[in-house]
Amino acid sequence: MPKHKQKSKTASKAKHKSMSPSFTSPDIDIGISTSDRKKIAQGLSRFLADAYTLYLKTHNFHWNVTGTMFNSLHTMFETQYTEQWQALDDIAERIRALGFVAPGSYSDFVRLSSIREDGQDGGLPDWKGMVQQLVSGNEILCRTAREALKVADNGGDDPSVDLLTTRLQTHEKYAWMLRSLLE
């Protein structure tokens, strides 16, 4: 093949890789293949979107809870959203360490998240409805974590497995605590 065609083909290939919105570092060699890193980053991105959506919902309910359970739920929601906020950074930084761009816009989160907004009409549920939504959100996050954890484990990504295991334990505990309020 003529030299000018090789350059053109190489330049085209490089341009295609740079146009990929999530791929940032093709030359990473951390012992995990590029293909596996991409799959893991995709799973972590979905998890980050679910985690951020649940964080927003928990924070919203903290601001707006009323009724007989106000004091205890206001405090519980604050404890949970504060912990969730701190975890978001670890998730995003893991995606970056794998060589991909972490999603960070509302449109990204809406597109990637399994957690949907309830009450689109602008109304808020009562405290029981809030708790039910947060139970559901934490359970969804557990399922998303389990899916991403399998991919990370299959790819030999122990740091992502560790991160997801920790988050899974946290959200199982949150779901249990919230669920117990409804019994």
Please, could you describe this protein's structure?
With 183 residues, the protein is an all-alpha fold. The protein has helices at 3-19, 34-64, 70-97, 106-112, 127-154, 158-180. Mean pLDDT is 86; it is low at 2-21.
Which class best fits the helix and strand makeup? mainly alpha
Order of helices and strands: HHHHHH
| CATH-assigned homologous superfamily of the domain at 50-114 and 124-183 | Ferritin, core subunit, four-helix bundle
Q: What's the architecture of the domain at 50-114 and 124-183, going by CATH?
A: Up-down Bundle
Mind describing the biggest β-sheet? none
This entry's quaternary arrangement is: single chain
Q: What is the CATH C level class of the domain at 50-114 and 124-183, in words?
A: Mainly Alpha
| Share in β-strands | under 5%
The radius of gyration over CA amounts to 20 Å
Number of strands: 0
Could you name the key traits of this structure?
183 residues; mainly alpha; Ferritin; disordered N terminus
Outline the fold blueprint:
Blueprint lengths: L2 H17 L14 H31 L5 H28 L8 H7 L14 H28 L3 H23 L3
Helix pairs in contact: 2-3, 2-4, 2-5, 3-6, 5-6
In brief, what are we looking at here?
With 183 residues, the chain is mostly helical.
